[in-house]
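Researcher: Last one for today. Full complex below.
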Amino acid sequence: MDYATLLQVLDSTMRLATPLLLACLAGLFSERAGVIDIGLEGKMLIAAFFSAAIAAATGSVWLGLLAGLVSSTLLSFVHGLASITFRGNQLISGVAINFLAAGLTVLIAQDWFGQGGRTPSLIGSGRWENITLPLAETLRPVPVLGPLYADLISGHSLLVYVGLVMVPVTWWVLFRTRFGLRLRAVGEAPEAVDTAGVSVTGLRYAAVGICGLLCGLAGSYLATGLQAGFVKDMTAGRGYIALAALIFAKWRPWSALGACLLFGLLQAVALRYQNIDLGGITIPVQVMDALPYILTVVILAGFVGKAIPPRAGGEPYVKER
Amino acid sequence: MTDPAPAIELQGISKSFGPVQANKDISLRVMPGTIHGIIGENGAGKSTLMSILYGFYAADKGDIWIKGEKRQIPDSQAAIKAGIGMVFQHFKLVQNFTVLENVILGAEDGGLLRPSLAKARGVLKSLAEEYELSVDPDMQVQHLSVGHQQRVEILKALYRQADILILDEPTGVLTPAEADHLFRILDNLRAEGKTIILITHKLREIMEITDTVSVMRRGEMTATVKTAQTTPEELAELMVGRKVLLRVDKAPAQPKGAALEVRDLRHVDTSGVERLRGVSFDLHAGEVLGIAGVAGNGQSELLEVLGGYADATGSVTLNGSALPLSGAGCDGMARRAAGIGHVPEDRQSEGLIMPYSAWENSVFGYHRDPMWQSGLLMKNAAIREDAAGKMERFDVRPPNPDLAAKNFSGGNQQKIVLAREIERNPDVLLIGQPTRGVDIGAIEFIHQQIVRLRDAGKAILLVSVELDEIFALSDRIGVMFDGRLMGIRDAAAADQRELGLLMAGVGEDEGQDPMAAAEAAERERERREATHG
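Model: Here's the assembly. Have a good evening.
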């Protein structure tokens, strides 16, 4: 494999890792606050559809993004209502959201556009443009580092950079601010937060809201950045891979970046080389697709350190006598 | 009217949960700078009253006055503002946060953590010096001993500038040394003019530290008296509503031959730690052998091994025949069939199946007995009828065999377990923590049953962390420390101080003072918790 090919694979890794990363950070906020969110997939899907649909209708990718954020956040609050206010089972609520999104998007798409459950292909200002960072072309001739900068670091759409910036932002919010302290506390010991005179419900809704916004970004990027329009089930299990990455990263922001880049790399390799030939042994593409899940099981089995989830995760808070 | 305004004054507080009236027209005055005890049985309404004071519930009726001002306390925030701090029985701490983070949670100064943490570090340092409340501020709470975690709770309240401190059953989880330290802290706080409300069901603590005591029974405040002018007997009577025997009335034991011979018993737990390190003793028919010790020194494992649900090496002989200590034939049912009854330490997870009815629970462990089976089917009608009889004889209330185990109070749950084990007439009865979380009235009954079984010539091994209970029931007393039996004494000749030393792992010939020993025990336990936490 030559250098140019390597750069291409890594470049594709960046793009494929972005929706994973945004969804993973979304899940991180929610689960750190004690609300397990298996509905990342559904929220990404609905955001992907609405951002593509609005972008197609208005020609503005920004309005599309807004629609994606709003739809995903609304769905997130449905999850919040079920699991925080009505103390329902969070897994069931999440699964319901996934089904709801899968059906709703296709149904509305067919009704609006009549193209078999897809939106029209986005062109021009309906899609995110790739941003060329300053001096990218000037520096290109520099050996090794030039192409690295011009091809790998420069030339992505805005949301890729937003995803990368969200990692330190998430870390800072969680570990350096009052809101972060309380958010982490509410996922570990909601009774401690409650007796300290802080609203458990308020904190959890805030976390669920942030989760919705980040899922909205992830879904919008899928339909208006990575692809040009919405197609049925376009998230293709990315929500679940993001959950796997979250466990793989042990609910920590920087590790989440690493896990998502790794899983993104696996996807990029699987996309480029259908079957990998290792001198006699051929690795079928399905192995690459399955690898994120296999790695997560390995982590969960405790082979690579212990993944300890937030203690109050999945449990609705009921004030005890 | 030269008296200062009461720190807390409650007038006519009532609170109902559905048909249950938890608090009926309660009035209470707590004077500033005093320690005020509130005593009552489980379910008497103590915790409900304090929850109202801390803003967890709104009272249906009644007024609250704090330091002479009428207050509404709709939530915990309002209680904190009024200067009330609460130390709950089950700590409200975030286990993987540091002490500092726990202290500032909810009381931060501004959006960023750094300045709050720095401020709290300074405040904690001065509080530690002032009240003997030292805790390492950067330690994660999960690595602290229970006693230290409680200090963090007190620090949390003081950091919020509470001058009224409510402690709910604070000594339930503490070692004797930790409890002594807690009382010194409370003394210091009182000396600084803080007001303390101590909720407990332990008469000894009330007598030891409070200035005034209020008694609650069935949701009502039945009396408020000066501690110096009352006696434990009077308080017990006020709590239960009838005369209670605080001492167990028993004749001297008539021990016979050894029923159970235990030799060099060793047990390694699943994480590879040796929990029993060569325990040997004889248990005689017709005696109660009490095993004292700070929780976690191998007593639980001893019961599990003897009860047949943990493997061990060594030998155990029951009336001359050896029992298997691992593999086939080593399980709870086999042991019961061999004549070893077992009242486990944790009745809710090991003694009963909580959602099952009392009559179903009344035969567990003996349900394969031909007496209860015909072919593949259980003789349900017979079991039910038998259970009703047991419940009557053991005064289980309500005497309804169809009620699920979880719907009985702690004392009545324990009576169901006791009835099941005692009525099978075992040669040996293992009893763990027989009265943990049990009301005074029920304690009296349970103790009588144990003595009655002893007088019937049975051998009883009693494990309890309550030293008072060990003294009240035992004919001989053994102390466990770090998986070893430190020595067995005749109960008549043993004194509490010596046992305290043994509990801390100090032999009688080493001349250490009790405080150093207690600290050593605490360090030892911290080490253990740190390595297994």
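Residues 3-237 of chain A form one domain. Chain A touches chain B through 23 residues (CB under 8 Å).
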